[in-house]
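Posted in: Structural Biology > Protein-Ligand Complexes

Title: Requesting predicted complex, zinc ion in pocket

I'd be grateful if someone could produce the 3D structure tokens for the following input. Sequence and ligand are given below.
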Amino acid sequence: MGKKTGVSASFGSRYGTMARKRYTAIMKTLKEKHECPSCGHPTVRRESFGIWACRKCGYTFAGGAYTPTTKVGAAATRAVGLKEAKKPAETPGKPGPVPAAEAEE
Ligand SMILES: [Zn+2]
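-- Reply #1 --
Done. Output follows.
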């Protein structure tokens, strides 16, 4: 019987191999440093399920339960971004300032 290592070591042989493998993969993702969408520093840590906070600038945002961003969340952000980018064009006679996000691209 080999010595078990890693975050799931305390589980012993309980819960089955697949459950432990999934838990290990999730915990590995949780412990990784994530980049802050606000200041860019890799200081984002999970506060709670779906809540992520940056230790550097205090920026708190909602994300996935185990990762800061999810595929669904990215799609939603993209959709909101497109919607907001269209706004100035839809109101003629009101040339609003160019959004910062658009200027960077
Ligand atoms: Zn930050």
